[in-house]
Design a protein that fits this description.
single chain; 260 residues; alpha/beta; 3-stranded antiparallel β-sheet; 8 helices; 10 strands; 16% strand; binds fructose -6-phosphate
Length: 260
Amino acid sequence: MEVVILPSSKQIGIMAADAIAALLRRKPNAVLGLATGSSPLPIYNELARRHTEEGLDFSQAHGFALDEYVGLEAGHYESYKEVIRREFTNRVNIAPENVHGPDGSAQDITAACQAYEDSMMALGGVDLQILGVGTDGHIGFNEPGSSLASRTRIKTLIEQTRRDNARFFNSIDDVPHHVVTQGLGTIMDAKHVVLVATGAQKAQAVREFVEGPVSAMCAASILQMHPHVTILVDEAAASSLKLADYYRHTFDNKPSWQGI
Ligand code: F6R
């Protein structure tokens, strides 16, 4: 697990976009794992800028969203399908049919979740997964207690997450209780995971999942078992890390050919 502490979310966006651009050059039909929420926005902004100004090409790429609310009507402004479209895929030249998300309105949710897993597998799995982290340590919507081997399925949101996400809705009463989310086992299948966390409100979760024990009580801690994870944090989110100086020293002395 590599921890990189950067001065601003703009620089976090640039570093993640560098990794995605390098991947697309190496593998134009790469499969990108897409998170929603506030954390990935600097990455999407930088990718959109590179597409417009530098011709970064997504024409053969695929995208798979991490999660979706259950119970929002189709086209709801805050459904993750719409958010991904608005914040990212409409701003680059990825083919709309190559952008996928779990189906939160399926009659048979279990079958839809299996079909989602199958469609990811059919493309060889996710090459680079973008993640944020919840204040309770969730990734995707794998709340505390989630099986560390879980696959895409329905989950119930914890009240803290509904409160955190109420800022996107008129009131907390409008935040759905249920979601479908890639499981921790699904996320662990991605070849490279890039997790972004910014702001003091994330400091405790970052400390727990980076330096605490691997435990279902802090879902993101399973990433300690992944062979290629990059954690991009600002100073505020890094402020509780015990080994912050070591992470800085390591990154400052990293061979230039290595990348993230
Ligand atoms: C979003 C997702 C969540 C968020 C997390 C952090 O698709 O899966 O895990 O990444 O709730 O949200 P922000 O970035 O809004 O703080």
